[in-house]
Amino acid sequence: QLRSLWLHRAVAGRLARDPERVLARGYRNLDRLQRVHPTGMSAAWLARWRRLLDEGPEAAMRALVDESPEADELRQNSPFAGVLTETERLAILRAARRHGAGSGARQ
Q1: What is the DSSP code string of 16-73?
Q2: What are the Cα distances from residue 28, in Å, to 4, 36, 44, 93, 100?
Q3: For the whole model, what pTM was predicted?
Q4: For 48-87, what is each residue's pLDDT tens digit?
């Protein structure tokens, strides 16, 4: 969960720099994910993401960096795949591992 938080903090940074592009990616991914998961808990979390995206970049940013149990669940059903490049994603995971995100209670 902490590695996911690090990744989503980077997404939040990208969202701050280019909200239109990041939100558009989120909506495209949500459309696809909601077709794949029309019912069940994943569907509920995806619907929550859609409401957050509809509220705008500030609401999405808060969810991306929040450390609550609800935010942990949201990040497990994230619509932001593809916002970070693979190179960026791997660099963030390496940094997280170096700085203790690979161990501890929030894993």
Answers
A1: HH-HHHHHHHHHHHHHHHHHH--SHHHHHHHHHHHHHHHH-HHHHHHHHH--SHHHHH
A2: 21, 13, 17, 25, 33
A3: 0.88
A4: 999 999 999 999 999 999 999 999 999 999 999 999 999 9
